[in-house]
């Protein structure tokens, strides 16, 4: 596929000034997506801890500490009784072995009733998306009326194992009955056995890192280094503007034990094109275009949302923020199309909702890499790609940039793998309120070639 994309799409270059273009769109539809006989499911509130660069202020904590802080922040912001929730679901990617079901440990730590079941899901970068939609399913099925969903990732302290040979020796040593058997096992240990086994940073099926895939995808779609740096700078600039204006209202203050109160994301760092241009390729060296400046960074953070049936929310006196409407999950080839989830998910979810791209007022796409975002935009704007890979008569159409990630994105705000989905959904709800729009669309790619898209409808003001 890569070679076909390269030859076909390089003939459709994007101007370096693409990020500033303004397009005319038809008036959005005003119909509601409510359906007879189906429950309206609403987002009541969403919060998150500040997203911090790994190895900074959160460095001495554990994942459940951050998840607990997000849950406590949700309780404080909503005044929710601690026994009023039917179920709790959390997403995470790299699990701490001591708290494998981090949803349960965080819920207990936050003071939720011990009668509330909780489970943890993992689906790479869309883990909290899965947590939310699992909750939506429970409500739609009549199993629950109130769900707390969220996600957490803690990259400051990832599990590092002994080598497999050392693990086997240690397990055998634990079972050895006699001193001689134990001494024999100890004597079998070699220096090579002591080499640590680090968490995988590559796709298991392809043995390729996501950054490497992003570099190849950018090359296939003819995305230049300049375009990627421009988009990354846009993300940081818009995030800084939103932070200074107090628009990131989902961020809660968190008193880190033994350290200061943290109240802001610390990865927002607007730079200059000149400074960004000095960085060398991070993955495909020396000629790659993906660098540390145009990639999302390793991040610690947690998020939480309160999802209810509309009936339950109103009965408890809440004013919901938004309706959670249609959603889809997609999956494709994890080698050449690893990061194209938004391109595949967007037309499917719009079709389910009976909407068009012109109906969407707010777009929030996960920014794993600037090259990944721009490759998706080019794929969505390509008739050839739509016809060849999506089975469409014509292109999907790229989101207009005046509606796209206007408060920054994962490149600047940070990307705790398991927590980003809730941030995206909450941001759409807040932007719809702020901008007076009706429909928002969330889309994200994930490891394994998977992706997610969801339509969100503003709650009447």
UniProtKB/TrEMBL annotation:
Residues 41-311 form the Thiolase N-terminal domain. Residues 318-457 form the Thiolase C-terminal domain. It catalyses: an acyl-CoA + acetyl-CoA = a 3-oxoacyl-CoA + CoA; decanoyl-CoA + acetyl-CoA = 3-oxododecanoyl-CoA + CoA; butanoyl-CoA + acetyl-CoA = 3-oxohexanoyl-CoA + CoA; octanoyl-CoA + acetyl-CoA = 3-oxodecanoyl-CoA + CoA. The keyword Zinc does not apply. One of its GO terms (cellular component) is mitochondrial inner membrane. InterPro entries: Thiolase, Thiolase-like, Thiolase_acyl_enz_int_AS, Thiolase_AS, Thiolase_C, Thiolase_CS, Thiolase_N. It is found in: Endoplasmic reticulum; Mitochondrion inner membrane; Mitochondrion outer membrane. SUPFAM superfamilies: Thiolase-like (SSF53901). It is an enzyme of class 2 (transferase). Its EC number is 2.3.1.155, 2.3.1.16. Heterotetramer of 2 alpha/HADHA and 2 beta/HADHB subunits; forms the mitochondrial trifunctional enzyme. Also purified as higher order heterooligomers including a 4 alpha/HADHA and 4 beta/HADHB heterooligomer which physiological significance remains unclear. The mitochondrial trifunctional enzyme interacts with MTLN. Interacts with RSAD2/viperin. Mitochondrial trifunctional enzyme catalyzes the last three of the four reactions of the mitochondrial beta-oxidation pathway. The mitochondrial beta-oxidation pathway is the major energy-producing process in tissues and is performed through four consecutive reactions breaking down fatty acids into acetyl-CoA. Among the enzymes involved in this pathway, the trifunctional enzyme exhibits specificity for long-chain fatty acids. This is Trifunctional enzyme subunit beta, mitochondrial. It comes from Sparus aurata. The lineage of its organism: Eukaryota, Metazoa, Chordata, Craniata, Vertebrata.
